[in-house]
C-alpha cells in the first residue's frame, strides 16, 4: 500500500466527530462518520466496527471506494461501509458522511414525508430530503446497505441533496467537511423534532428555496463557532 | 441445597444489566432483570427486592421455577418473581427476562395497540407484541403478577414472541442471553417512542415479516458492539 | 414558643425531599414540600422562601395552621404557605404536602381534564384528580394561593383525594408521610406524561376503582425501595 | 472612547446569563444575551461572536445603538447585534435582551400562532407574543436580522410586548434587568412546550389579561430566588 498517511488532524477530527454525535444523541451504540482521505480522493477514513462513543484515533481504518479496508489488520469493519464508499464515488463535493438512526428523523422516513427547513439552522435541507426505499431496489432485505449495489442506489437517491432518509432504518448526511457533515446530521435531528411539533400545531410555513439557499450560505460561515463549543465539551480523547 | 454456584461472570452481568437499564430509563426505582441459571435450567437468578440501580453481585438470589428463593437468607424478594419463573418454565429458549414499566411502551398497552417494528433496530418485535389483560385472568386485581397462575397466563400470552405488553402495568421481554434481553427491552422503549410519533405524522410503513426476520438475525451479530459501550459507561460495580 | 423541637430526622427528610423533587423535575426554582410537625399536629415544617434544590436543614421553618411562622427570624417565607396550612387543617390523615408546577400536569388543569391512573404506579390517583379554579373563588387574581381563604377553598376542592390540579398554576399532592407525598408528586408527573401520549394514541383503558384501590395499597409497601434509591442519589446534604 | 467602564458586576452577570441559558437549553451553540450599559443608555454590552456556553467576562464587547463595536479589537462580532441595538433604541424600559432559537417556541412562529400564558410563571407573555415576518420587510433573505433596518422593523413588531417570535428563526425577549430577560426567555420555552401539549389535549383556558398582569407583577418579586439557584448551578466562571 503506497497511499500516504492521512493528516493526523483529520483522523483526530473523525474521532471527535463520533463523540460529538454521540453526546448529542444523533448516534447511539450504532451509526458512523467518515471523511474522504485528504491525500487521495478515492479513499476514505472510517472507524472499525465499534460504538461511536468509544472511537479513538487508532481505530480509524482506510477504505477504497469499493469499501475494501486497506489496514484493518483483522479488525471487524462496519457492514454498511458501502454507504460511505458509494457517496464518495458519486459526489466529488462531499468530503464527509454521517450515517445514523437519529431518532426524530425515523418517523419521517416511515411515513414517506420529507424533512423541510423549519428554521434557518437547517436551511441545508433546502427543498427537502430524499427518501430511500430499499424494497424498490432489492425486495425484502435485512434493511442494511451492505453491498456496493445498494450503496450506489442510495447515493443515486441522495442525488445533489444534503441528506437522504432511509425507510425503516435511519438517514445519511453528506458535507463539504467533517464539521459541516456533523452540523447537518445534528440539525437534521433538531429540525425533524421541530417539524413534527409544528405539523401538529397547524399549517407550516417553511423556508422557501431562496431563503434556504441564502441562509445555508451564511450559516456555513458560523460553523466554526459551534464546532469550538463541541470540541471543548468533548475535551481531549484518551 | 446441592445446586452448584452460578458462573460469577453471569452474576456480574445481571448486576450490570440492572444498571444499564436504569441508565437508559427502561427501569426506574422499579423493574427487574433475571437470567436462567447456567448450571441448572430449572433455576434462575434475580436480585432481592431493591432498586435496580443499586444492585450488586451479592444481591443476586437463586430461585426455582415455582419462584421459591433458595438463598434469600431473610431478604425480601420481588412480589413479581413469578413473571420470570413462568417464562423460564414455558420457554426453553429464553435465557434472560426483563420486566419494566418502560414509559413509552405503557400508552400502547392501555390503548390496546401493538408495538410494531418502525426500524431495523427493533426488528425483534417481528409481527408485533403480545398484550396481557390481567382482568381476563383474575378480574380486578392489584395489577401485579404475584403468583404462579398469573405468571403462567402471562407466559402463555407471550407465546413465542419476544415481548408482551401488560395493560396498566408495563412490559416483559425475553432473550437468548442477558445482552439480548437488555437490548430488546431498551429498543422496545425506543421503538415505542418512534412509533407514537410516526402514527401522529401519518400512515406508517413497518418492517414486514421477512424484513423483520432478516434484520433481527443480522442485528443479533451486532449486540456485542453496543454491550461494550454500555459496560464501559457503567464502569466497575462497587 | 413552648413547642418542642421537631425530630431532626424529619427535618432532614424534608430537605432531602426538596432535592429529590428537583432532581426529578417535579419542582424547578419554584415549588415546596412540607411535613406536619411530629410533636404537634397543629404545626408544620416548610423551608423559608428559596429554591428547593438549595434547601438545608437550617432552612426549615415552623408554621402554625394560620400559616404564621414561629421561627423565621426575619427570613422571607413562601407566599403560598397557606396551601399547606389549610390542607393540614382539613385533612388529619395528611402528614406531608408537595406543591409544584410539575410540567406534564399543567396541560390537564388548563384543559379541564382529570388525571386518571394509566398504570399501577399512579394508582393513588384513584378515580381521578380534583381541579381547583381560583376564578370561582376570588375572580381575577395573581393565581397564587396566598391567604387562608384561598387555601381553605383549595383544601375543600382536594377533598379526600390525593392530588388537586390548580388551573393555570400547578398541582398539590398530599400523603401520609414525606415519602408517600414525594412518591405521589413524582408519579403524578409520570402519569400525566403517559396519559397525554395514550390519549393521542386512542381510547384509554384506565385502572378501574377496584384495581386502583388494590394497587395503591400494595404499592405503598414498596415506597421504601425507591426512597432508598433517591436518598443515595442525593447523598449527604451539605 | 470616553465612555466609562461598565460595572464589572454587570459584565459578570452577562457572562453568567449566557451560561444559564445554555444549561437550560434556551440557547445552543447559537443565540446571545446583552445588557444596556449601566453608565450610558445609548450603549450596550454583548459577547463577541462565540458560543454562549463559553463566554467569559473578557469576551464582552461594548456597542453603540448603531451596533458599532467600540472595543472589539479585531474580534468578530455577532451578525445579528442589530436586534439588540434597535430594541434598546426603541424601548427605554428594556435593560436586557435575549435572542435565541429556543426550540419549543419555533413551531409557534412557523404556524403563525401566538404564545399565550398557560400558567402564572409565564404571565409576562400577557395577551400574547408578537410575530415578526421578515419576508414582509425585506422579501427573501437569509433570515438574519443583520442590519439596522431589519432591527428597527423587529423592534417595531415587538412594540411594548415582552417577546417577539421570528418566523423560521427564533425569538427575542426583553426585560428590565438581565435576570428578568433570562427568566422570560427560559419560561417562554417552558410555556411553549406546555401550550403545545395543552392544545393537543383540548380547548385551553389561558390566563386572562387581568390574571396575567397581576401574576407577572408578583412573579417579578420572586426572580431573585431562582436566579440564586441558577448562579450556584453555574458556579464561578473561569
Account of the protein in words:
The structure is a homotetramer of 238-residue chains. In chain A, helix 1 runs parallel beside helix 6 (178-201). The first copy, chain A, has helices at 8-23, 81-90, 106-110, 134-138, 148-158, 178-201, 209-220, 223-234, and strands at residues 32-36, 43-47, 60-64, 96-100, 130-132, 163-166, 170-175. With 238 residues, chain A is an alpha+beta fold. Chain A is built from eight helices and seven strands. In chain A, strand 1 and strand 2 form a beta hairpin. The first copy, chain A, has a seven-stranded mixed beta sheet with strand order 3-2-1-4-7-6-5, sandwiched between helices. The A-B interface holds A 28-30, 49-51, 53-54, 79, 101, 103-104, 106-108, 110-113, 135, 140-144, 167-170, 196, 199-200 and B 117-121, 123, 190, 193-194, 197-198, 200-208, 210-211, 214-215, 217-218, 222, 225-226, 228-230, 232-233.
Secondary structure blueprint with pairings:
Four copies of one chain form a homotetramer.
Chain A lengths: L7 H16 L8 E5 L6 E5 L12 E5 L16 H10 L5 E5 L5 H5 L19 E3 L1 H5 L9 H11 L4 E4 L3 E6 L2 H24 L7 H12 L2 H12 L4
Parallel strand pairs in A: 5-6
Antiparallel strand pairs in A: 1-2, 1-4, 2-3, 4-7, 6-7
Structural features:
homotetramer, 7-stranded mixed sheet, 8 helices
Please count the beta strands of chain A (DSSP E, at least 2 residues each). 7
The arrangement of helices and strands of chain A along the chain is HEEEHEHEHHEEHHH
Kindly report how far apart the N and C termini of chain A lie.
28 Å
Largest interface: A-B, 32 and 34 residues
Helical element count of chain A?
Answer: 8
Shape call of chain A: globular
Helix content of chain A: 25-40%
Low-confidence stretches of chain A: none
